[in-house]
Amino acid sequence: MTGTAGPDGSEGGRPGVGTLVRQGLIVLVGVILATVMVILGIWQMGRFETQRTNSAQSRIGQPVVVWSGTGSHAGSAASNYGRRVQVTGRFVSSTQLLVGTSYPLRVVTGLTMASGETIPVVRGVVDRGQPVPTAPSGTVTVTGVLLASEAQPDATTVPAPIRAEPALRLEVLAQTWPEPLVPGSLTLLRADAVKEGLTPAEPKVPETDGGDRNRGYALQWWAFAAFALGMSIVFARAAGRSRKG
Question: What is the pTM for the complete model shown?
Answer without folding.
Answer: 0.65
